[in-house]
């Protein structure tokens, strides 16, 4: 039987879900059985042979439910091959400061479980899907609606992920 990979995601406005779906599609093309599921709908991991986990970023951190998922299931995650991806809009550059800042988004998660692979993808901002407070914040920060997702980069990563065991 083909190994089953859980592609778990946390999203506020849906762009991370769409990335998770693209990743799952590529894993299926590679012969895995891939199941896409929101982090808060996942119970145990006993049905899965590997986990790909993705979250968007708000205020410099993964969404709390994604961090909670790792905290709750860290013992199981440590025993499985894992890959984490992050969807975000700032610190996208190739310079050292951007790289350092984006790597820090998942420091709290990496402290619990060190993934076998990590990726950072430019995301999408659609202020029509935000709460009033978040919309006002984006207006204050003069943040424009845009979709920066690079589907070639996302597919390239998904087609090449080695779902190997973590070292920690
Ligand atoms: C209120 C708010 C805060 C955000 N904070 C950050 C941040 O600290 N760093 C960053 O890189 N992106 C930040 N973003 C951008 C989101 O991570 C990006 O739009 C992402 O694609 C949203 O994913 P989702 O549609 O799955 O929720 C923020 C977006 C919003 C609306």
Ranges where pLDDT stays below 50 over 5 or more residues in a row are none
Percentage of β-strand residues = 15-25%
Report, as a whole number of angstroms, the end-to-end distance: 28 Å
> How many DSSP H or I helices?
6
**What is the rounded Rg?**
16 Å
Number of domains: 1
Number of strands: 8
User: Which superfamily, in CATH terms, is the homologous superfamily?
Assistant: Flavodoxin domain
Q: Please write the string of helix (H) and strand (E) elements.
A: EHEEEHEHHEEHEH
CATH-defined architecture? 3-Layer(aba) Sandwich
Helical/strand content category = alpha/beta
Q: What is the overall pLDDT average?
A: 94
Which term fits the overall shape? globular
Topology:
Layout: E1 4-10, H1 15-29, E2 33-38, E3 50-58, E4 61-62, H2 64-79, E5 82-88, H3 96-104, H4 107-110, E6 117-122, E7 124-125, H5 132-140, E8 146-147, H6 151-160
Parallel strand pairs: 1-2, 1-3, 3-5, 5-6
Antiparallel strand pairs: 3-4, 7-8
Bound molecules: flavin mononucleotide.
């Amino acid at each position: 039987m083909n190994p089953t990979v859980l592609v778990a995601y946390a999203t506020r406005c849906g762009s991370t879900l769409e990335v998770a779906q693209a990743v799952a599609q590529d894993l299926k093309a590679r012969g895995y059985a891939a199941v896409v599921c929101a982090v808060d709908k996942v119970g145990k991991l006993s049905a899965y042979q590997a986990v790909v986990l993705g979250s968007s970023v708000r205020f410099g951190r993964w969404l709390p439910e994604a961090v909670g998922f790792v905290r709750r299931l860290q013992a199981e995650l440590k025993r499985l091959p894992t890959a984490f991806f992050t969807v975000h809009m700032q610190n996208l550059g190739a310079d050292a400061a951007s790289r350092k800042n984006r790597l820090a988004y998942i420091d709290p998660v990496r402290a619990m479980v060190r993934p076998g692979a990590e990726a950072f993808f430019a995301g999408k901002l659609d202020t029509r899907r935000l709460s009033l407070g978040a919309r006002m914040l984006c207006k204050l920060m003069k943040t424009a609606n845009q979709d920066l997702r690079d589907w070639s980069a996302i597919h390239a990563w998904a087609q090449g992920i080695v779902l190997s065991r973590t070292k920690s």
